Sequence to fold (258 residues):
Amino acid sequence: MEIINANISHFDKLETTNEDNTIAVQVAQVLRQLYAFDPESTFLLDYASGPLSRNLAASTRQILGADISQGVVDSYNRLAREQGLSPDKVQAIRVQPFVPTSNTSTAPDGGIAEAANRLEEELQLAGRKFDVVLCANAYHHFPDIDLVTRLLVSVLKPDTGRLFVVDLSEYKRPHGAGHHHHGHHHAHHHPPSAGHSHDPEPFTGPTVAHTGGFTSSRIQSCFTNAGLCDFQFVDSAATAEMGGGKATFFIASGRRRE
Ligand SMILES: C[S@@+](CC[C@H](N)C(=O)[O-])C[C@H]1O[C@@H](n2cnc3c(N)ncnc32)[C@H](O)[C@@H]1O
Fold:
């Protein structure tokens, strides 16, 4: 809960007037190649909302944003209006954070059913499900990415709904041999240092639950366990200068099986 509260207070204060759209523009371009968006029908959820979904507005019928920070929700909606998008087309809503009741290994449910019901109510879905759920640059903030993935899958249309996750690809560490760790990487922190100019640490601090980026296999196991199939992974969908080096962003996608 501590990390979730750190995120709420950090993102509530963040000034997004001069939002940097660079990554969002690159990722939106690749997403349009990966998925047949239909401006007449595609219903999209942007969980942890940001510029990426607004870049996809012309390709979708309706976008709902969900975020735990009222500040992010307000900026998202203001920027959508400035872009000429009406609330019935694009609208973010503040939602309660999903706080897992226990960890993935010990709980078959982990509080997902309750969280899914609450999310459906908060978004006033009345039984509607999403064609696409998008979650960009937020997985590194989530204490338990397996449980969040299962929550996101629960609001997707069975058989056809697709989840897209964007986040930082695993850093190429010059001295990183043997550091391909799974599960215990919270404890490993590699601050940027001289001589590691290609080893950026763009996301650090009290809001970050996972440093070091994610491997394709970590995300794939997360997706598979959550009931997704047709896994796709674009390792380098976007790049940006961050933290004194080049950061590379992946797009992972999977289809809800049933
Ligand atoms: C780095 S921003 C990314 C925003 C946007 N998707 C983008 O790509 O620019 C991270 C977002 O995750 C949200 N967030 C952090 N922790 C969260 C949590 N536990 N549940 C839902 N959203 C969370 C923050 O409020 C913030 O809007």
Remarks:
- DSSP finds seven helices and seven strands in the chain.
- The longest helix spans residues 22-34.
